[in-house]
Amino acid sequence: MKKVVLLRHGESVWNKENRFTGWTDVDLSPQGVEEAKEAGRLLKAEGFHFDMAYTSYLKRAIKTLHTVLEEMDQLWIPEEKNWRLNEKHYGMLQGLNKAETAAKYGDEQVKIWRRSYDVAPTALSPDDERSPYQAACYRHVNRADLPLTEALIHTVNRIVPYWENTIVPSLKTRDEIIIAAHGNSLRGIIKHIKHISDADIIGLNLPTAVPYLFVFDDNMNLVEDRFLGDPEKIKALMEAVANQGKAK
């Protein structure tokens, strides 16, 4: 059996402020650090011994991964960073408060921007300071691949080839891997693995730092998937994520 743990990063400072974050490289909040530590303790108690780790270029995911592995005494394992695991790019929404934006444009419009499959927010200008064109970490990425905004379909289209061409082949020689990334990049992987429809993926909300276990047979057929932790607590956390984009 092959095991893959998907882990959304712990609460970031902009999660705490209820802002659209996207590719903005914000740090974990103190609560986010504690969430990551708790996830690490849970995974250690569950007996996981990871062979490989994957994460994005964004520090909130990187620090979550390192905090988890430190709690597990597994900081030594190999690690790969890739921009394709980054969060969905929110374009001109990045930095705006979700509730304030909902009050201005309506809950339904913000839900469309946050969760619809094929409607993207207004794109950034290439010379905007928030543009990935301006960040040193993307200087070796083909500019044509770098988004200035995305809908989930675009996130899926960049993450699925990485899953199929990099992560799945790595499981031929490994038994347990962890992917620390973001709500929408992980939703893209989950959509692909579970064959979730374009319409139904809107309803999937991933809470911060709650491990989501996928078990596959040796032919990469899905055998089991489940969140690790208290089901009632996880349900409440998922509802809180769903409510972030509503006007107060």
What does this entry look like structurally?
With 248 residues, the chain is an alpha/beta fold. The chain has helices spanning 13-16, 30-45, 59-71, 98-105, 107-115, 152-170, 183-194, 231-242, and strands at residues 2-8, 52-55, 79-81, 176-181, 212-216, 222-227. A six-stranded mixed sheet has the order 3-2-4-1-5-6. Helix 2 (30-45) packs across helix 3 and helix 4 packs across helix 5 (107-115).
Count every helix, treating DSSP H or I runs of 4 or more residues as helices: 8
Catalogue the unreliable spans: none
Order of helices and strands: EHHEHEHHHEHEEH
Tell me, rounded to a whole number, the average pLDDT.
94
- Terminus-to-terminus distance: 46 Å
**Major pleated sheet:** 6 strands, mixed
Overall structural class, as computed from helix and strand content, comes to alpha/beta
Strand content: 5-15%
Q: What is the number of E strands? A: 6
Return Rg in Å.
17 Å
Q: Order of strands side by side in the largest beta sheet?
A: 3-2-4-1-5-6
What general form does the structure show? globular
Q: Helical content, roughly? A: 25-40%
Give a brief description.
With 248 residues, this protein is an alpha/beta fold. It contains eight helices and six strands.
Secondary structure elements and their pairing?
Elements (H helix, E strand, L loop, with lengths): L1 E7 L4 H4 L13 H16 L6 E4 L3 H13 L7 E3 L16 H8 L1 H9 L36 H19 L5 E6 L1 H12 L17 E5 L5 E6 L3 H12 L6
Parallel strand pairs: 1-4, 2-3, 2-4
Antiparallel strand pairs: 1-5, 5-6
